[in-house]
Protein backbone atom coordinates (compact mmCIF):
# COMPACT_ATOMS: atom_id res chain seq x y z
CA UNK A 1 0.00 0.00 0.00
CA UNK A 2 1.38 3.42 -0.95
CA UNK A 3 1.92 5.97 1.82
CA UNK A 4 -0.84 8.15 0.40
CA UNK A 5 -3.31 5.26 0.49
CA UNK A 6 -2.30 4.47 4.06
CA UNK A 7 -2.88 8.04 5.22
CA UNK A 8 -6.24 8.11 3.45
CA UNK A 9 -7.26 4.89 5.20
CA UNK A 10 -6.32 6.38 8.57
CA UNK A 11 -8.40 9.48 7.86
CA UNK A 12 -11.35 7.36 6.78
CA UNK A 13 -11.13 5.20 9.90
CA UNK A 14 -11.03 8.29 12.11
CA UNK A 15 -13.97 9.78 10.23
CA UNK A 16 -15.97 6.64 11.00
CA UNK A 17 -15.05 6.81 14.69
CA UNK A 18 -16.07 10.46 14.88
CA UNK A 19 -19.58 9.53 13.80
CA UNK A 20 -20.13 7.86 17.17
CA UNK A 21 -21.48 10.47 19.58
CA UNK A 22 -24.21 11.04 22.17
CA UNK A 23 -26.88 11.09 19.47
CA UNK A 24 -25.42 8.07 17.67
CA UNK A 25 -23.87 5.74 20.28
CA UNK A 26 -24.17 2.82 17.87
CA UNK A 27 -24.34 2.27 14.12
CA UNK A 28 -25.29 -0.54 11.80
CA UNK A 29 -22.92 -1.16 8.92
CA UNK A 30 -25.62 -0.12 6.48
CA UNK A 31 -26.29 3.18 8.25
CA UNK A 32 -22.59 3.90 8.68
CA UNK A 33 -22.04 3.26 4.98
CA UNK A 34 -24.83 5.66 4.04
CA UNK A 35 -23.70 8.36 6.47
CA UNK A 36 -20.04 8.18 5.47
CA UNK A 37 -20.63 7.98 1.74
CA UNK A 38 -17.90 5.34 1.48
CA UNK A 39 -18.23 2.06 -0.43
CA UNK A 40 -19.69 -0.76 1.66
CA UNK A 41 -16.58 -2.89 1.18
CA UNK A 42 -14.39 -0.04 2.48
CA UNK A 43 -16.55 0.48 5.56
CA UNK A 44 -16.58 -3.26 6.27
CA UNK A 45 -12.78 -3.44 5.97
CA UNK A 46 -12.22 -0.43 8.23
CA UNK A 47 -14.74 -1.54 10.85
CA UNK A 48 -13.22 -5.03 10.90
CA UNK A 49 -9.77 -3.55 11.52
CA UNK A 50 -11.10 -1.23 14.24
CA UNK A 51 -12.86 -4.16 15.88
CA UNK A 52 -9.67 -6.21 15.86
CA UNK A 53 -7.91 -3.37 17.69
CA UNK A 54 -10.73 -3.03 20.21
CA UNK A 55 -11.76 0.44 19.06
CA UNK A 56 -15.26 -0.66 18.06
CA UNK A 57 -17.24 -3.61 19.37
CA UNK A 58 -20.09 -5.61 17.87
CA UNK A 59 -23.21 -5.29 20.03
CA UNK A 60 -25.55 -7.13 17.71
CA UNK A 61 -25.79 -8.50 14.17
CA UNK A 62 -24.11 -5.87 12.01
CA UNK A 63 -24.31 -3.26 14.78
CA UNK A 64 -21.32 -1.57 16.41
CA UNK A 65 -20.45 0.77 19.28
CA UNK A 66 -17.23 2.30 20.60
CA UNK A 67 -15.03 -0.49 21.96
CA UNK A 68 -13.14 -1.07 25.22
CA UNK A 69 -9.83 -0.18 23.59
CA UNK A 70 -10.66 3.47 24.22
CA UNK A 71 -10.77 2.99 27.99
CA UNK A 72 -6.99 3.06 28.30
CA UNK A 73 -6.71 6.16 26.13
CA UNK A 74 -9.56 7.80 28.03
CA UNK A 75 -7.72 7.25 31.30
CA UNK A 76 -4.50 8.67 29.88
CA UNK A 77 -6.32 11.65 28.39
CA UNK A 78 -8.10 12.40 31.66
CA UNK A 79 -4.81 12.34 33.55
CA UNK A 80 -3.05 14.52 30.99
CA UNK A 81 -5.86 17.05 30.65
CA UNK A 82 -6.71 17.38 34.33
CA UNK A 83 -8.12 20.83 35.07
CA UNK A 84 -6.42 22.49 38.08
CA UNK A 85 -8.65 23.04 41.14
CA UNK A 86 -8.10 26.81 40.94
CA UNK A 87 -9.50 26.86 37.40
CA UNK A 88 -12.53 24.80 38.39
CA UNK A 89 -13.10 27.07 41.40
CA UNK A 90 -13.08 30.15 39.16
CA UNK A 91 -15.60 28.50 36.84
CA UNK A 92 -17.80 27.62 39.79
CA UNK A 93 -17.83 31.22 40.99
CA UNK A 94 -18.73 32.40 37.48
CA UNK A 95 -21.66 29.98 37.31
CA UNK A 96 -22.87 31.04 40.76
CA UNK A 97 -22.51 34.76 40.04
CA UNK A 98 -24.34 34.71 36.71
CA UNK A 99 -26.61 31.72 37.24
CA UNK A 100 -25.55 30.50 33.80
CA UNK A 101 -23.59 27.34 33.00
CA UNK A 102 -19.88 28.00 32.52
CA UNK A 103 -17.92 26.00 29.94
CA UNK A 104 -14.22 25.81 29.18
CA UNK A 105 -13.38 25.17 25.52
CA UNK A 106 -10.20 24.38 23.65
CA UNK A 107 -9.56 24.36 19.92
CA UNK A 108 -8.92 20.99 18.32
CA UNK A 109 -8.28 21.37 14.61
CA UNK A 110 -11.33 23.02 13.08
CA UNK A 111 -13.56 22.30 16.08
CA UNK A 112 -13.91 23.38 19.69
CA UNK A 113 -14.24 20.85 22.47
CA UNK A 114 -15.87 21.38 25.86
CA UNK A 115 -13.16 20.47 28.36
CA UNK A 116 -14.87 21.31 31.65
CA UNK A 117 -18.16 22.64 32.96
CA UNK A 118 -19.71 24.28 36.01
CA UNK A 119 -23.48 23.98 36.08
CA UNK A 120 -25.53 27.14 36.44
CA UNK A 121 -28.01 27.65 39.24
CA UNK A 122 -31.05 28.44 37.09
CA UNK A 123 -33.55 25.71 36.26
CA UNK A 124 -33.40 26.28 32.49
CA UNK A 125 -29.78 25.76 31.49
CA UNK A 126 -27.57 25.51 28.46
CA UNK A 127 -26.93 21.77 28.13
CA UNK A 128 -23.59 20.79 26.58
CA UNK A 129 -21.86 17.56 27.51
CA UNK A 130 -18.21 17.70 28.51
CA UNK A 131 -16.23 16.29 25.61
CA UNK A 132 -18.69 17.54 23.01
CA UNK A 133 -17.19 18.83 19.79
CA UNK A 134 -18.69 21.80 17.96
CA UNK A 135 -17.79 23.73 14.82
CA UNK A 136 -15.62 26.81 15.02
CA UNK A 137 -17.77 28.84 12.66
CA UNK A 138 -20.39 29.72 15.28
CA UNK A 139 -20.66 30.77 18.89
CA UNK A 140 -18.93 33.25 21.18
CA UNK A 141 -16.31 30.72 22.29
CA UNK A 142 -15.38 30.01 18.67
CA UNK A 143 -14.78 33.68 17.93
CA UNK A 144 -12.53 33.91 20.97
CA UNK A 145 -10.56 30.78 20.05
CA UNK A 146 -10.01 32.18 16.56
CA UNK A 147 -8.17 35.15 18.08
CA UNK A 148 -5.15 32.91 18.67
CA UNK A 149 -2.36 34.77 16.80
CA UNK A 150 -1.33 31.88 14.51
CA UNK A 151 -4.95 31.60 13.36
CA UNK A 152 -5.93 35.26 13.17
CA UNK A 153 -2.69 36.83 12.01
CA UNK A 154 -0.34 34.21 10.56
CA UNK A 155 -2.25 31.66 8.49
CA UNK A 156 -5.42 33.03 6.83
CA UNK A 157 -6.23 29.63 5.35
CA UNK A 158 -7.39 28.30 8.75
CA UNK A 159 -10.39 30.61 8.99
CA UNK A 160 -11.11 30.13 5.29
CA UNK A 161 -11.25 26.34 5.75
CA UNK A 162 -13.48 26.68 8.81
CA UNK A 163 -15.83 29.00 6.91
CA UNK A 164 -16.17 26.48 4.08
CA UNK A 165 -17.76 24.03 6.52
CA UNK A 166 -20.44 26.52 7.56
CA UNK A 167 -23.92 26.49 5.99
CA UNK A 168 -23.47 30.14 5.12
CA UNK A 169 -23.46 32.10 1.83
CA UNK A 170 -20.24 33.02 -0.04
CA UNK A 171 -18.15 35.64 1.70
CA UNK A 172 -18.70 34.17 5.16
CA UNK A 173 -14.94 33.80 5.71
CA UNK A 174 -14.58 37.57 5.63
CA UNK A 175 -17.36 38.00 8.20
CA UNK A 176 -15.92 35.26 10.41
CA UNK A 177 -12.49 36.91 10.34
CA UNK A 178 -14.07 40.28 11.14
CA UNK A 179 -15.89 38.75 14.12
CA UNK A 180 -12.65 37.22 15.42
CA UNK A 181 -10.79 40.51 14.92
CA UNK A 182 -13.51 42.34 16.85
CA UNK A 183 -13.33 39.78 19.67
CA UNK A 184 -9.56 40.21 19.79
CA UNK A 185 -9.87 44.00 20.07
CA UNK A 186 -12.63 43.93 22.70
CA UNK A 187 -11.33 41.01 24.74
CA UNK A 188 -14.62 39.11 24.59
CA UNK A 189 -17.27 37.87 22.17
CA UNK A 190 -21.05 37.62 22.17
CA UNK A 191 -23.30 35.34 20.14
CA UNK A 192 -27.05 35.07 19.68
CA UNK A 193 -28.63 32.09 17.94
CA UNK A 194 -25.59 31.29 15.81
CA UNK A 195 -25.35 27.58 16.54
CA UNK A 196 -28.79 27.02 18.02
CA UNK A 197 -31.83 29.27 17.78
CA UNK A 198 -32.71 30.80 21.14
CA UNK A 199 -29.28 30.22 22.69
CA UNK A 200 -26.78 32.98 23.47
CA UNK A 201 -23.30 33.15 24.92
CA UNK A 202 -20.48 35.35 26.15
CA UNK A 203 -16.84 34.24 26.05
CA UNK A 204 -13.37 35.55 26.86
CA UNK A 205 -9.91 34.17 26.05
CA UNK A 206 -7.49 32.35 28.33
CA UNK A 207 -3.98 33.32 27.25
CA UNK A 208 -0.48 32.12 27.97
CA UNK A 209 2.18 34.71 28.82
CA UNK A 210 3.34 34.59 25.18
CA UNK A 211 -0.11 35.71 24.00
CA UNK A 212 -1.31 32.36 22.66
CA UNK A 213 -5.00 31.66 23.26
CA UNK A 214 -5.15 28.25 24.93
CA UNK A 215 -8.84 28.18 25.83
CA UNK A 216 -12.07 30.13 26.03
CA UNK A 217 -14.21 30.53 29.12
CA UNK A 218 -17.87 31.01 28.26
CA UNK A 219 -21.34 31.14 29.71
CA UNK A 220 -24.40 30.16 27.74
CA UNK A 221 -28.14 30.15 28.18
CA UNK A 222 -31.48 31.23 26.71
CA UNK A 223 -31.30 34.39 24.62
CA UNK A 224 -34.08 35.94 26.71
CA UNK A 225 -31.66 36.15 29.65
CA UNK A 226 -28.87 37.70 27.57
CA UNK A 227 -30.68 41.01 27.26
CA UNK A 228 -29.02 44.37 26.64
CA UNK A 229 -29.40 45.40 30.27
CA UNK A 230 -27.90 42.13 31.58
CA UNK A 231 -25.09 41.68 29.04
CA UNK A 232 -22.65 44.14 30.67
CA UNK A 233 -22.87 42.18 33.93
CA UNK A 234 -22.29 38.91 32.09
CA UNK A 235 -19.37 40.32 30.10
CA UNK A 236 -17.65 41.68 33.21
CA UNK A 237 -18.13 38.40 35.07
CA UNK A 238 -16.70 36.32 32.22
CA UNK A 239 -13.72 38.63 31.79
CA UNK A 240 -12.99 38.55 35.53
CA UNK A 241 -13.10 34.76 35.44
CA UNK A 242 -10.69 34.72 32.48
CA UNK A 243 -8.33 37.09 34.31
CA UNK A 244 -8.45 34.87 37.41
CA UNK A 245 -7.66 31.75 35.38
CA UNK A 246 -4.78 33.59 33.73
CA UNK A 247 -3.25 34.24 37.16
CA UNK A 248 -3.15 30.48 37.85
CA UNK A 249 -0.53 30.09 35.09
CA UNK A 250 -2.55 27.26 33.60
CA UNK A 251 -0.93 26.72 30.22
CA UNK A 252 -3.81 24.85 28.63
CA UNK A 253 -3.23 22.25 25.97
CA UNK A 254 -1.76 22.64 22.51
CA UNK A 255 -4.23 23.13 19.67
CA UNK A 256 -3.34 22.47 16.07
TrEMBL record:
Any one GO molecular function term: DNA-binding transcription factor activity
Keyword Protein transport in annotation: no
Organism: Kribbella albertanoniae
Highest taxon above the source species: Bacteria
Key words, A-Z: DNA-binding, Transcription, Transcription regulation
Annotated IclR-ED domain residues: 69-251
Alphabetized InterPro entries for the sequence: GAF-like_dom_sf (IPR029016), HTH_MetabolicPath_Reg (IPR050707), Tscrpt_reg_IclR_C (IPR014757), Tscrpt_reg_IclR_N (IPR005471), WH-like_DNA-bd_sf (IPR036388), WH_DNA-bd_sf (IPR036390)
Ranges where the HTH iclR-type domain occurs: 7-68
Gene3D superfamilies the record matches: 3.30.450.40, Winged helix-like DNA-binding domain superfamily/Winged helix DNA-binding domain (1.10.10.10)
GO BP term, pick one: negative regulation of DNA-templated transcription
Entry protein name: IclR family transcriptional regulator
PANTHER family the UniProt entry points to: HELIX-TURN-HELIX TRANSCRIPTIONAL REGULATOR, ICLR FAMILY, HTH-TYPE TRANSCRIPTIONAL REPRESSOR ALLR
